[in-house]
Amino acid sequence: MERTFIAIKPDGVARGLVAKIIKRFEQRGYKLVALKMVKPSDAHLREHYADLAGKGFFNGLIEYMKSGPIVAMVWAGENACAGGRMLLGETNPQSSLPGSIRGDYSLTIGRNICHGSDSVESAEKEIALWFGKDEICDWELPV
Ligand code: CMP
């Protein structure tokens, strides 16, 4: 089953959007297999965003991600990476359609509420970075 890593960033937590975001993933039919609230270290965040290290906004991004707790999750289901990003909307909220999480709740790319893996390969890397194997609870609905 495909898995994706979804994080509710400090602005999403502070604005009380945790339950609303979880609800959208549950409603769509994805299965929650891991969830925790964390304040990751500087080094952890720099590793998570390593591919953006050369960007002018990089240090600001790391400070933003350290500004409060993050809700880190793993969701599983058919096409979870692309489908999860569809629920989140575009990285830049200005390009996000109403109905998507960013399209409904955010205005600027520097405060875009949530993160979602952009491919199956990054999802597996991100899941391994944020969660230990014993923190993933795979489960099936009883028949
Ligand atoms: P995310 O989906 O977590 O992936 C990379 C993050 O970098 C992105 O969301 C934004 O939070 C941030 N980001 C990307 N582009 C910019 C930008 N031009 N200015 C500020 N932050 C950005």
TrEMBL record:
<dbReference type="Pfam" id="PF00334">
    <property type="entry name" value="NDK"/>
</dbReference>
<keyword id="KW-0418">Kinase</keyword>
<dbReference type="InterPro" id="IPR034907">
    <property type="entry name" value="NDK-like_dom"/>
</dbReference>
<feature type="binding site">
    <location>
        <position position="112"/>
    </location>
    <ligand>
        <name>ATP</name>
    </ligand>
</feature>
<dbReference type="GO" id="GO:0006183">
    <property type="term" value="P:GTP biosynthetic process"/>
</dbReference>
<dbReference type="InterPro" id="IPR001564">
    <property type="entry name" value="Nucleoside_diP_kinase"/>
</dbReference>
<feature type="binding site">
    <location>
        <position position="102"/>
    </location>
    <ligand>
        <name>ATP</name>
    </ligand>
</feature>
<keyword id="KW-0067">ATP-binding</keyword>
<protein>
    <recommendedName>
        <fullName>Nucleoside diphosphate kinase</fullName>
        <ecNumber>2.7.4.6</ecNumber>
    </recommendedName>
</protein>
<dbReference type="GO" id="GO:0006241">
    <property type="term" value="P:CTP biosynthetic process"/>
</dbReference>
<feature type="active site" description="Pros-phosphohistidine intermediate">
    <location>
        <position position="115"/>
    </location>
</feature>
<dbReference type="InterPro" id="IPR023005">
    <property type="entry name" value="Nucleoside_diP_kinase_AS"/>
</dbReference>
<dbReference type="InterPro" id="IPR036850">
    <property type="entry name" value="NDK-like_dom_sf"/>
</dbReference>
<dbReference type="GO" id="GO:0006228">
    <property type="term" value="P:UTP biosynthetic process"/>
</dbReference>
<feature type="binding site">
    <location>
        <position position="91"/>
    </location>
    <ligand>
        <name>ATP</name>
    </ligand>
</feature>
<dbReference type="GO" id="GO:0004550">
    <property type="term" value="F:nucleoside diphosphate kinase activity"/>
</dbReference>
<comment type="similarity">
    <text>Belongs to the NDK family.</text>
</comment>
<dbReference type="GO" id="GO:0005524">
    <property type="term" value="F:ATP binding"/>
</dbReference>
<feature type="binding site">
    <location>
        <position position="9"/>
    </location>
    <ligand>
        <name>ATP</name>
    </ligand>
</feature>
<feature type="domain" description="Nucleoside diphosphate kinase-like">
    <location>
        <begin position="1"/>
        <end position="138"/>
    </location>
</feature>
<keyword id="KW-0808">Transferase</keyword>
<keyword id="KW-0547">Nucleotide-binding</keyword>
<feature type="binding site">
    <location>
        <position position="85"/>
    </location>
    <ligand>
        <name>ATP</name>
    </ligand>
</feature>
<feature type="binding site">
    <location>
        <position position="57"/>
    </location>
    <ligand>
        <name>ATP</name>
    </ligand>
</feature>
